[in-house]
Design brief:
Layout: E1 2-7, H1 11-26, E2 30-31, E3 38-43, H2 48-64, E4 69-74, H3 75-79, H4 81-84, E5 90-93, H5 97-110, E6 140-146, H6 157-161, E7 165-166, H7 169-181, E8 186-191, H8 206-216, E9 221-224, H9 234-237, E10 248-250, H10 258-264, H11 270-283, E11 288-295, H12 302-315, E12 319-324, H13 342-365, E13 371-379, E14 385-388, E15 394-397, E16 406-415, E17 418-423
Parallel strand pairs: 1-2, 1-3, 3-4, 4-5, 6-8, 8-9, 10-11, 11-12, 15-17
Antiparallel strand pairs: 6-7, 13-14, 13-16, 14-15, 16-17
Helix pairs in contact: 7-8, 12-13
Length: 430
């Protein structure tokens, strides 16, 4: 059969879709972009906007694959299965991802409705899936954790994904070695909430896992997904001894105002967050600290918003993903009083993005004249090669580079959200 896989949302969804594609190929199926017998959409439901994107993707998949069986798995299928009835042939949720292929094959053979309710019971244990490099990319994803127990008031994901489950450390290290043996130069450790890795496995935690992987594959860059501020302690900072751990840390902020953080049920204050950022900078010189920010959260006053803007300036992030608050039905925040008008949220987002752009540019300008080792990924339409620095920001340069090969450049300028480099292959530092 011909299978088409499409993922929306986070890196975890991308990892899972690529893993399913691997499993399908191992069964003898062909992976295609159009003209498929089966289409599998891994859906996102983090916001109401995400649900709309799912339906747009469904329409596109139907258009490009008019005779295909359409299966929808992932978070929207988990939380809103009734909305997908009559739209998808199979609605599979977040459980037993590998068995999704069984259901698809059976439906193609029988063309009879199947009971997929079992796919919507979040599993008690981690479901191992094969790691791979997503199609068209250079960096590999390694999913080490699933689920979340934080229950922030704006987020539906703990209800969709269930409790924290962790990939056993020995298996995670084995998968990293497998990726390295297949020529992977960089691995991104990902999950729904990786800071909770090991909570369900006595004797294992994220810091221990990072150290084990860095030692197991010393010639491979290791990059981390989003972290909670509580992760940063003396043990974490001691990981600076590993040169292959990339100095880029995405610390989840959401607001720079303590009263808003309390309404969000975030488990830190702005002062505590700032202390964690300084600890990272003390242990990983010049490290890139990036974050997420929600503006216009219910009840956010102008004074609270201005506190957040001040915090953005003080923290001097290397990059900030700014989101206007989007009410997600089923979360406590959606029913809170003081919902901020959309226009005001958009205006606040624009102001926050302006400050974020200034701090990002200042951070990148600090690298002018310095050398960076870049893992080159692709050539764009203008003839520039693009790749990622150890600090996560993009680098572009002209020259005879090769995909998935390291080559050094000297930074000569900053342009938009990336830096411009000139080739210099003598520098060997990672």
């Amino acid at each position: 059969m011909k299978f088409c896989f499409f993922a929306l949302g986070c890196k975890v969804n991308l990892f899972e879709s690529e893993a399913l594609a691997q499993l399908a190929q191992a069964r003898g199926h062909e992976i295609v972009e159009q003209g498929a017998d089966v289409c599998v959409l891994n859906s996102c439901t983090v916001t109401a906007v995400g649900d709309h994107k799912n339906f747009r993707a469904i329409r596109r998949l139907r258009r490009d694959n008019p005779h295909a069986v359409l299966a929808v798995c992932g978070c929207m299928a988990q939380m809103e299965p009734e909305k997908l009835k009559g739209v998808a042939d199979l609605v599979c949720g977040v459980a037993d991802r590998a068995k999704v292929l069984d259901a698809c094959e059976e439906f193609v053979r029988s063309r009879k409705p199947l009971d997929t309710s079992a796919f919507r019971t979040p599993p008690a244990a981690f479901e191992p899936l094969p790691p791979s490099v997503p199609r068209g990319r250079t960096r590999a994803l390694l999913k080490i954790e699933d689920g979340c127990d934080q229950y922030c008031t704006y987020c539906i994901i703990p209800y969709a994904r269930g409790h924290v489950r962790s990939l056993p450390m020995a298996q995670a290290v084995q998968q990293a070695r497998q990726l390295a043996a297949n020529g992977v130069q960089e691995i991104v450790l990902t999950g729904i909430e990786i800071s909770s890795y090991g909570r369900d496995r006595p004797g294992e935690d994220l810091v221990h896992l990072i150290a084990e992987i860095c030692e197991a594959v010393p010639d491979v860059r290791i990059r981390l997904g989003s972290l909670e501020p509580r992760t940063v302690d003396d043990r974490f900072c001691a990981l600076a001894q590993y040169p292959n751990l990339m100095p880029h840390f995405h610390l989840s902020l959401q607001s720079g105002c303590d009263t808003v953080l309390a309404r969000m049920k975030r488990r830190y204050t702005s002062a505590q967050f700032a202390q964690k950022a300084e600890a990272l900078r003390g242990s990983f010189p010049n490290c890139s600290i990036t974050t997420d920010l929600i503006v216009g959260f219910p009840g956010e006053t102008q004074a609270e918003f201005e506190q957040t803007l001040l915090f953005l300036r003080q923290c001097a992030f290397a990059a900030v993903h700014v989101f206007p608050y989007s009410p997600r039905p089923g979360t406590p925040a959606a029913a809170m009083p003081g919902q901020v008008p959309d226009l005001q949220k958009q205006c606040r987002a624009a102001l926050a993005k302006q400050i974020a752009s200034q701090t990002a540019q200042a951070y990148q300008e600090g690298f002018i004249g310095k050398q960076l080792r870049v893992l080159w990924e692709h050539m764009d339409a203008d003839g520039f090669w693009r790749g990622h620095s150890p600090y996560a920001f993009q680098v572009k340069a002209k020259g005879d580079f090769c995909k998935n090969v390291f080559c050094d450049v000297t930074v000569v300028a900053v342009e938009g959200d990336c830096v411009i480099g000139q080739k210099n292959c003598k520098h060997k530092d990672r």
